[in-house]
């Protein structure tokens, strides 16, 4: 588990963009069960989260179609919430960072770490905007 003081600015980056940080499994269940679309970001301390994942996700929200709900869990900090979010992402293996889009409780799009590493924030945003166009 990472000390909360270390991850606070990393959490705040998404919170300041309108994301709700979830810390319990029940909160995750409640958000994913909501009607409409929910974007779940599994946040991380790694360089690809800081360099491309968070900036790409934030940039993807600057267009007309966006998810109804924006939530995040922090791997290595919000254990119960992260574990529950990952249950909803099966059959995909646990990945940090990762970004998943749910529609009416069903997983419809996912970016795993291997889709994020080595890609630009712009490429991540473009990928997500495409998913929003289709599902939001």
Walk me through the structure.
By secondary structure, the chain is α/β, with parallel strands linked by helices. The chain has a single domain, classed as Glutaredoxin. Helices cover 46% and strands 20% of the residues. The chain is built from six helices and five strands; from the N terminus they run H-E-H-E-H-E-H-E-E-H-H. Strands 1-3-2-4-5 form a five-stranded mixed β-sheet, with helices on both faces. It is globular and about 40 Å long. 38% of the residues are buried. The model has no long low-confidence stretch (mean pLDDT 95).
Low-confidence stretches: none
Number of helices: 6
Strand order in the largest sheet: 1-3-2-4-5
Here the CATH topology equals Glutaredoxin
Number of strands: 5
What is the CA-CA span between the terminal residues?
A: 34 Å
Strand content: 15-25%
CATH superfamily: Glutaredoxin
Give the helix proportion (percent range). Answer: 40-55%
Average pLDDT reading: 95
What structural class should be given to the helix and strand makeup? alpha/beta
How would a textbook summarize the main sheet? 5 strands, mixed
H/E topology pattern: HEHEHEHEEHH
